[in-house]
Amino acid sequence: MALPPLFSAVGATGLLVIMSVGLLAVSTFHPQALSGLRMNAADAAAPVLNVVSAPLQKAAIFVRDVTGLAALQAENARLLEENTKLREWYQTALLLEAENKSLRELMNVKLDTPHTYITARILSDSTNTFAKSLLVSAGSADGVQKGQAVIAADGLIGRVVEAGEHSARVLLITDMNSRVPVLVEGSRQHAIFAGQNDKKGTLVHLPPESKVSRGARVVTSGVGGVFPVGLPVGVISDTEGEIVIEPFANFNRLMHVRIVNKPEDPNLRPGGF
Amino acid sequence: MGPYESLTDKMEFIARMLVPYAVLAMIFILSIVTVPYPLAVFFQAPLLLMAIYYWSVYRPTLLPPWLVFAIGLLLDLITGMPYLGLSAILFLLGRIVVVDQRRFLTGQSFMVIWMGFAALAALFHIFQWSMSCLLSLQWMPVRDFVSSYVLGIVLFPALYLFLHLSHKILPAPISRSKTRIGSQKTDMTL
């Protein structure tokens, strides 16, 4: 049987390269066109990744424990010291909490509804190539929605950009397409944290007259409504030229993440007539 | 009487043929799954490129272009690559280059094969980095690409050994060779 003219001219490999270039063009110019396909593939792979990642995580912890005995001793000493300081802070926090509570009652302040969290395990990451993203083991069936903030123990790590049924894709704050509205503590200056596809990010859209100093903490400002207010993002590590922010979260050691469930606003009730 | 006529022979043939694909599937899963520190460093190497290089040199019929395309596409889909199809292009071009040079590469010592991979991985990473700069319209940090390249070269012998073992299990090609099951004779047929 004779092959179609195009097929015989370029060969099977050539045809597949042309198809790949076509896909590349579609995904570059219409990124949303293929997002459903991406999430379906991730959802299908999630059970396999779930099974494989669990023993690998245990193996990593085992290797870390066995090889890091000296480091463990040093860390233990540091933690003991830190614990003493934190105990003092804990007592202060208890006092402040009680004081805050009574003052709020006196002032009749309406408090924000507390957040709830969905904890998920990291299944896959693409943090070494083009995009800085994670695939996590919770999806729309668990209450995950597009746009929710994602945090780790140390601070903000990203937001949900795609939610499948049993998995979700998280765009990390270090991805070059990520922009997070932030507030510099101390100066109360609003700015945007921009990812650079690197370990650190930069602070942009900061008014030229504003002064920020090294070591200042940066937290989410809540502007735009995507991220809740006050989530720790990072610390200013350099102010020469670009203002560089070192995120609090240690992206290399992540195993689990917490997805911040948006609280239901009691003022918004389902309408309809 | 042919070598695979009885049922047990046929079953053995199928089982042996499946081993390299099982190894490939394992390498694919290890390429996409998250492995925390300190093991993570081993999985940042271009493991799939190593497998594609190995089979393109020693038995390209085992890894036809459509399978290379499917591997690249699935990798992009599952890892959430913003530029879908890029890995498929890179793997297919890598396969074209290696298959073109396989008459030189087959029968060479391991050192030459290793150097061949170093050259291919260099081209692969340079092209990958250039494409990422072009598609995102900005200079991308090179650190991740350099570390992936260096790790690839360092870990190539280990994965080569693993792939070589799965190659030894493969039955010899029936088309031109009359050798028995388990023969290590190199297949020169495409």
Task: Indicate the topology.
The complex is a heterodimer of chains A (273) and B (190).
Chain A: H1 5-29, H2 35-67, H3 69-107, E1 116-125, E2 133-136, E3 149-151, E4 156-163, E5 168-172, E6 179-184, E7 189-195, E8 201-204, E9 217-220, E10 232-238, E11 243-247, E12 256-261
Antiparallel strand pairs in A: 1-2, 1-12, 2-5, 3-4, 3-12, 4-5, 6-7, 6-9, 7-8, 8-11, 9-10, 10-11
Chain B: H1 7-32, H2 47-58, H3 65-79, H4 86-105, H5 110-136, H6 143-169
Greatest interface and its participating residue counts: A-B, 55 and 47 residues
Low-confidence stretches of chain B: 176-190
Gyration radius from CA atoms of chain A, angstroms: 23 Å
Going by CATH, the architecture of the domain at 115-262 in chain A would be: Beta Barrel
Instruction: Say what the CATH topology of chain B is.
Output: Arp2/3 complex 21 kDa subunit ARPC3
Overall domain count of chain B: 1
Principal-axis shape of chain A: globular
- Uncertain regions of chain A: pLDDT < 50 for 5+ in a row? none
CATH top level of chain B is Mainly Alpha
The structure class of chain A reads: alpha+beta
Mean pLDDT of chain B: 84
What's the CATH class of the domain at 115-262 in chain A, please? Mainly Beta
Output the structural class of chain B: mainly alpha
Strand content of chain A: 25-35%
- Straight-line distance between termini of chain A: 65 Å
Question: How do the strands of the widest beta sheet of chain A line up side by side?
Answer: 1-2-5-4-3-12
The multimeric state of the shown protein is: heterodimer
Compute the average pLDDT of chain A.
Answer: 82
Fraction of residues of chain A in helices? 25-40%
Supply the key terms.
heterodimer; A: 273 residues; Thrombin, subunit H; six-stranded antiparallel β-barrel; six-stranded antiparallel beta barrel; 3 helices; B: mainly alpha; Arp2/3 complex 21 kDa subunit ARPC3; 6 helices; 0% strand; disordered C terminus
